[in-house]
Design the sequence.
């Protein structure tokens, strides 16, 4: 089967304008993501995994190599690839419902239509009744839900998530992972999910790609054959956890351990 | 609740001690050295004069013409500063084109324009408006540029991945994101405008509170001078209060809105 997203020989070099120092963030990254797959990219802080995601989003350009979506080379950002940032980037001047409606408005749907569809997506993430709340009036977990609703509302084919639960407490984080699994099982989108948490990666992914420290490379890819919803305390989960941790150790790059 | 109220009362009480002592000293001093009292009237007389000016409508007339002047000058400033600031903040070429010019004119204090204003426009409303314009354009312009240039890049990224084109990116994201900064500039500008209207009225026109106190000096009515100063202070306070109300109305979404 042809991959949905195909990353070929990607290299990214950052040049500091003032000191002229060059930093190689990514080197020789190859990655194929199939349609409808949930792929987690696991790596330590500063391994370039976010950069990889931004390049796929079209918000960053590669120094060498290319990324294709359905065989077409990606040249810039577009509504076919939704991005969930760790900072969420909810628009503080828009209410929850108007945040969710933004992508639909950009597609030129009539305003009432946008509102109605946005309301449905807010319901999907369990935020019925909070349509008119502003982001600063909501808790971190609620803002997260709004961001997910906004991500889904304009129906992108691919979801790119950059450590979206990084700022949440352990409990909310677990809850959001459950929720995301549920939503993904309904929507069946192709997902690229960047994280530094081993547990989160095993809990969410069909496959987990392990990245090494700078320059970032894909070191190995592990299949997660567990059925969903997954039991974080289960025997099989533990086996996979140990396996991933060993692989990470071998690379001398220990990511911080956190439960999803 | 009871405790908080007592605390606030105590705070108010302590705050009043110094001004009350000050007015007592002023009153006593003015009455004891009667010869000097011609030039420095006791506060009781100033208040009486203020009341008389209010009763015969003089004060209202001058206040209204000052306020109209401030609002017109401020509107002219806004008309120039807002579009130019948005353009300079958003477009690099525009910034490079105009920045040097701004840097050349900005450090010239508004008061230094007084002789030039009279040379250019003679006597009357036009030099007054010109002075207000020269004083208020900078805070509005600079804070608008600042607001646009310092926009959180994640807002722009999020909008781009939801399919915003450049025009809608500007109208729907950049402008609202810059609004708090623009409002802050306007509020500072309003304070500056009030300062400059008085300066202009001392020199160039025959109405307004500034004219009223300058005229009072010439006919040796120190009581009117001081009464006028009190009125100028009160109106300035009201203008700032108005700016704050507008800010609160339009920036309801902003967390921890700084009003002080």
Sequence:
């Amino acid at each position: 089967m042809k991959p949905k997203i195909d990353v070929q020989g990607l290299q990214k070099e950052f040049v500091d304008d003032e000191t002229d120092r060059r930093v190689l963030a990514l080197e020789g990254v190859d990655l194929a993501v199939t349609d409808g797959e949930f792929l987690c990219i696991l790596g330590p802080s500063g391994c370039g995994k976010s950069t990889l995601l931004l390049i796929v989003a079209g918000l960053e350009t590669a120094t060498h190599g290319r990324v294709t979506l359905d065989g077409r080379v990606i040249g810039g950002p577009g509504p076919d690839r939704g991005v969930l940032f760790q900072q969420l980037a909810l628009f503080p001047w828009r209410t929850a419902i108007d945040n969710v409606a933004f992508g639909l408005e950009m597609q030129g749907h009539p305003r009432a239509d946008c509102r109605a569809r946005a309301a449905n997506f807010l319901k999907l993430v369990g935020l019925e009744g909070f349509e008119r709340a502003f982001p600063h009036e909501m808790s971190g977990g609620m803002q997260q839900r709004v961001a997910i609703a906004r991500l889904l509302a304009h129906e992108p084919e691919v979801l790119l998530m950059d450590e979206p639960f990084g700022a949440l407490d352990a409990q909310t984080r677990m809850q959001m992972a459950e929720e995301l699994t549920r939503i993904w099982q309904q929507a069946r989108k192709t997902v690229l999910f960047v994280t530094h948490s081993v547990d989160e990666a095993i809990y969410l992914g069909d496959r987990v790609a392990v990245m090494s420290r700078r320059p970032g490379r894909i070191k190995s890819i592990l299949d997660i054959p567990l059925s969903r919803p997954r039991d974080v305390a289960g025997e099989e989960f533990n086996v996979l956890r140990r396996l991933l941790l060993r692989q990470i150790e071998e690379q001398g790059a220990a990511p911080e351990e956190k439960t999803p | 609740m009871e405790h908080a109220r007592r605390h606030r009362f105590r705070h108010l009480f302590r705050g009043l001690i110094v001004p009350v002592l000050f007015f007592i000293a002023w009153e006593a001093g003015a009455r004891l050295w009667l010869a000097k009292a011609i030039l420095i009237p006791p506060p009781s007389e100033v208040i009486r004069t203020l009341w008389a000016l209010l009763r015969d409508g003089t004060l209202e007339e001058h206040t209204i013409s000052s306020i109209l002047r401030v609002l017109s000058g401020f509107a002219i400033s806004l008309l120039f500063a807002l579009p130019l600031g948005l353009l300079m903040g958003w477009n690099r070429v525009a910034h490079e084109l105009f920045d040097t010019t701004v840097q050349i004119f900005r450090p010239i204090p508004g008061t230094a324009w007084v002789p030039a204003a009279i040379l250019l426009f003679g006597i009357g409303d036009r030099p007054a408006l010109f002075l207000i314009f020269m004083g208020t354009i900078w805070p509005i312009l600079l804070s608008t540029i600042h607001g646009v240039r310092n926009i959180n890049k994640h807002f722009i990224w999020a909008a781009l991945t939801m399919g915003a084109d450049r025009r809608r990116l500007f109208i729907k994201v950049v402008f609202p994101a810059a609004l708090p900064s623009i409002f802050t500039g306007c509020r500072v500008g309003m304070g500056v405008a009030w300062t400059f209207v008085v300066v202009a009225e001392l020199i160039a026109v025959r109405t307004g509170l500034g004219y009223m106190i300058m005229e009072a000096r010439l006919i040796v009515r120190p009581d009117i001078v001081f009464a006028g100063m009190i009125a100028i202070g009160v109106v300035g306070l009201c203008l700032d209060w108005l700016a704050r109300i507008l800010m609160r109305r339009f920036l309801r979404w902003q967390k921890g809105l700084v009003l002080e």
About this structure: The first strand of chain A starts at residue 5 and ends at 15. Chain A has seven helices and ten strands. The first helix of chain A runs from residue 49 to 57. The two ends of chain A are 31 Å apart (CA to CA).
